[in-house]
Write a structure and sequence with these properties.
Structural class: alpha/beta
CATH architecture of the largest domain: Orthogonal Bundle
Strand order of the largest sheet: 1-4-7-10-13
CATH class of the largest domain: Mainly Alpha
Number of domains: 2
CATH topology of the largest domain: serine acetyltransferase, domain 1
CATH superfamily of the largest domain: serine acetyltransferase, domain 1
Helix content: 40-55%
Distance between the termini: 63 Å
Largest sheet: 5 strands, parallel
Strand content: 5-15%
Oligomer: single chain
Length: 253
């Protein structure tokens, strides 16, 4: 036993993982998204839930800081929390139109409550839209924890910095991947297994900040297991991408 203890002590000295308390961060992230879900969908505004949301975000920023800024003063943290609060009604509005789009596009759906309670595509969009605003505020770690939690629950992987327009309809959803610099317009329908990805990641961190993922314009339908790659790729307004299509570095289809 002593030899194992010695090896672990040596390991901790030589190999340092950042955010050793990240399990606590993940717990706070799941608490946060559950509170926002209740705030949005319980039927009436509850101030106590908003205050609890504010505290969780405040504590998370206090612990982890912002991207490229680990040290935050209290005034700055409170300002970021307030800015996020102002985004919440707009997020809820966007989710209303996502709900309508999913319901109207799926004849197998019995009612709108079914979308909110049972559709993985709607849940993934809900988490993404919350995480997206936190990512734009440069909150460290939390946006990615949220979308990875949604990925765990739904099998849908949406990067928090992707851009998704109004009335997005995700049907089934399993295996969908939407990359960081992907831009998706309004009234887009996406089916299971679709990848909106980068053509290459050979450059690694050197590619940070470049447009690596496709642009999908308004009123596009992308059927199951289609793969669309590359920052130069544009799917034009109203196009239909067939199932199992493979598209890269081209404008239009």
């Amino acid at each position: 036993m002593q030899s194992i203890i010695n090896e672990f002590n040596l390991s901790y000295q030589n190999y340092h993982f950042e955010y050793l308390n990240q399990r606590l961060g993940l717990k706070k992230a799941t608490q946060l998204i559950d509170l926002i879900y209740d705030l949005f969908f319980e039927g009436s505004f509850v101030k106590a839930k908003l205050l609890a949301i504010n505290k969780l975000i405040h504590d998370f920023i206090e612990s982890y800081g912002l991207i490229d800024n680990d040290i935050m003063n209290e005034k700055d943290i409170l300002l970021i929390v307030e800015m996020f609060d102002h985004f919440l009604p707009k997020i809820r509005e966007n989710l209303y139109y996502d709900m309508l789009a999913i319901y109207e596009n799926d004849p197998a759906c019995s009612n709108k409550a079914e979308v909110v309670l049972a559709y993985p595509g709607f849940y993934a969009l809900f988490v993404y839209r919350v995480a997206h605003e936190l990512a734009l505020l440069k909150v460290n770690l939390l946006p990615r924890l949220l979308t990875e939690y949604a990925n765990f629950r739904t099998g849908i992987d949406i990067h928090p910095l992707a851009t998704i327009g109004k009335s997005c309809s995700i049907d089934h959803g399993n295996g969908i991947v939407i990359g960081e610099t992907c831009v998706i317009g309004d009234n887009v329908k996406i089916y299971q297994g679709v990848t909106l990805g980068a053509l290459t990641t050979k450059g690694g961190q050197k590619l940070k900040g470049t447009k690596r993922h496709p642009t999908i314009k308004d009123n596009v339908t992308i059927y199951a297991n289609a793969t669309i790659l590359g920052g130069e790729t544009i799917i034009e307004d109203g196009e239909v991408v067939k199932a199992n299509a493979f598209i890269f570095n081209q404008k239009g289809v």
